Amino acid sequence: GVKEMRKRIMVIDDNLTSLTQVKAILSRDHEVLPVTSGAQALKLLDKFQPELILLDILMPEMDGFETLTAIREAGVKCDVMILTGAEDAEGMREKCMRAGAKGYLHKPLTANMLMAVAGAPEYEAAGDSRPEFKVF
């Protein structure tokens, strides 16, 4: 049934519009915790125990790469998907992949991409043919 498919998903993005959009789409089927910074995410990791993390690259203070590195150093093993936009620095995505991200999603995010990455069974197929949804 649908119950077992529910995941705890942490979304880390300093852009509130983006956070609100992602939460609106995913919270129908999943428990979603939106946080606005890497520092806040690190404080809440233990309590929330996410099964999936969506992580924006371009953030003030701690960027996505630094946040990802800290998440891995904290011993958190869950999948991390990077949210990437056109304005990201060259090589940033590759750096994140090396630091242990599972893949990345290109902004603007669509409901299909988000549901596919959250693992809703009816959307799993959507991942393959979509150029902006890349899983390594």
Q: What distance lies between the first and last C-alpha atoms, to the nearest angstrom?
A: 28 Å
DSSP helical segment count: 7
Helix content class? 40-55%
Rg measurement, Å: 14 Å
Order of helices and strands: HEHEHEHEHEHHE
Defining traits:
136 residues, alpha/beta, six-stranded mixed sheet, 7 helices, 6 strands, globular
Q: Would you mind describing this structure in some detail?
A:
The chain is of the alpha/beta class. It is 40% helix and 21% strand. It contains 7 helices and 6 strands; from the N terminus they run αβαβαβαβαβααβ. It has helices at residues 2-5, 16-26, 38-48, 64-73, 92-98, 111-118, 126-129; strands at 8-12, 31-35, 52-56, 79-84, 103-106, 133-135. The protein has a 6-stranded mixed beta sheet, with helices on both faces. Helix 5 (92-98) links the parallel strand 4 (79-84) and strand 5 (103-106). Helix 3 runs parallel beside helix 4 (64-73). The longest helix has 11 residues, at 16-26. The termini are far apart. Residues 121-132 have low confidence and may be disordered.
What's this, in brief?
With 136 residues, this protein is of the alpha/beta class. It has seven helices and six strands; from the N terminus they run αβαβαβαβαβααβ. Helix content is 40%, strand content 21%.
